[in-house]
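Worked example 3. Consider a protein that binds BJW.
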Amino acid sequence: MFSKTLIEKLKNLQCTAALTGAGVSAESGVPTFRGKDGIWKKMKPQELASIEGFMKNPELVWEWYKMRREIISNVECNPGHKALARMEDFIPEFWLITQNVDDLHNKAGSRNVLELHGNILRNKCIKCQKIYTETDFDASSALPRCSCGGLLRPDVVWFGEMLPAEILHSAFYASKKCDVFLSIGTSAQVQPAASLPVLAKDSGAYVVEINKERTPISDYVDEVITGQSGEILPDLIKAVWG
Ligand code: BJW
Ligand code: ZN
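Given these inputs, the predicted complex is written out as structure tokens:
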């Protein structure tokens, strides 16, 4: 299932970066965004995942995020998350870059996660930017507010918003530096995350895609492994480190 090149590179080289997307959490029961059962089949991204949508109908957006937090609080990380956490122990320099906001990489024990699109468990004030954790805000309110009076919103990155600058900077650094780049469970459609595997390839990395189906980057990468990340990643660990 894995090429000799991939096994040798992971075993012997210094730096690996992995970019994960919603597919990595799908086997835990967290819905993906695109595809036939994806969230965006039933919901409109511009209404739920943009500041314009939030300002128009904050109650609706909060209702949706509370529903998603409920799903996330009832799921467990899967063998794919756990395998990625173990890779950090085997590889001298391992960067885990995720588009996921569900906190499952942290739950699985990954220590150094670059959360490109924020974290659904945090909130921030739209007026003073103060950050609130999962528990230190009034979750019973339909429209939670900051002590300054500003509306709270989930601390995630919506369409049209900049990604957190330092985290994005680190993700670009890792993608340029790594010897192996793994793109896992992402449809590779949302920018700037989708440009990271391309940057890695252009900088000389061996780029591998792990996905249930082909994506816009499949023809560009060095190796495509088709299947479920929760099965493939533990098998990869076994194949490389026994
Ligand atoms: C499995 C599996 C299993 C299933 N095993 N695989 C350049 C060109 C065109 C547009 C733009 C551009 N630059 C910027 C844009 C605009 C926009 C964008 O990219 N639009 C495109 C969609 C057209 N980007 C932005 O607005 C970004 N901001 C930005 O660039 O700021 C600068 C700027 C501002 C203004 C103008 C221009 C520049 C911000 C993007 C924020 C994305 N936010 C979301 C919501 C986060 C909050 C939340 O969750 O509530 O992030 S949208 C959603 O998509 C979420 C995800 O992180 C993201 C990526 O999705 P992902 O992870 O790839 O999931 P899916 O569902 O798409 O795919 C799942 C995959 O898994 C599939 O391939 C399955 O096959 C696979 N799979 N089970 C393995 N078991
Ligand atoms: Zn405030």
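Take a moment to read the result before moving on. The longest strand covers residues 118-125. The chain has a mean pLDDT of 97.
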